[in-house]
Input
Amino acid sequence: MSLKLHVFPPSPRAFKVLFAAHQLDVDYELVPVNFANGGTKTPGFTALNPNQRMPVLEHDDFSLWESNAIVQYLASLKPESGYLPADLNGRMQAIKWQFWESSHWDPACAIYMFENVVKKLFSLGEPNPAELERGRQLFARLGPVLDGQLGRTACLAGPRMTVADLSVAPSLSSAELAQMPIADYPNLQRWLAEMQALPAWGQARALQRPAA
Output
């Protein structure tokens, strides 16, 4: 049984699935994909994901795209971990935050990543003030939602980590470099520091450096 993760390691979405795999202790083969050089547009990759985007999980003859779906799949391989709660209410509480991340949080964080990191990395010009203002407004709306929840519970879906934390925290993996405005959210900062202190976070971060 061979599980492969096709990723461009510097990407926060790639970091998400790498962090999850290490936190869940799932064995995998890393398959680097360089989208800057057209790596996601090859016939082989397109057969795995017709959207031509990474990350992609390949497990024997099964392939799966969308980072949060991959996180759920990895957690399903380790049911004893409790990261995908067995009870319906607990599971839905965790999955709810995954939907929130993909619909709201990731797009807000992505503005700062693109304007303050990607543009510089690929010589795409200066940050767009209008886009950064849009990002600021999104953070002003979404930051209190996340900070408020983390003021009530140690982790996003309750007292212990679930797929919710594995999915939401990685959007902040380059928060300092991207200059994301998180200084006003103490509960978020406490939780992020706890995520960053996990060995799995450091292991996933180490995989980003060679390709960065």
In short: The chain has two domains: 3-81+202-208, 88-198.
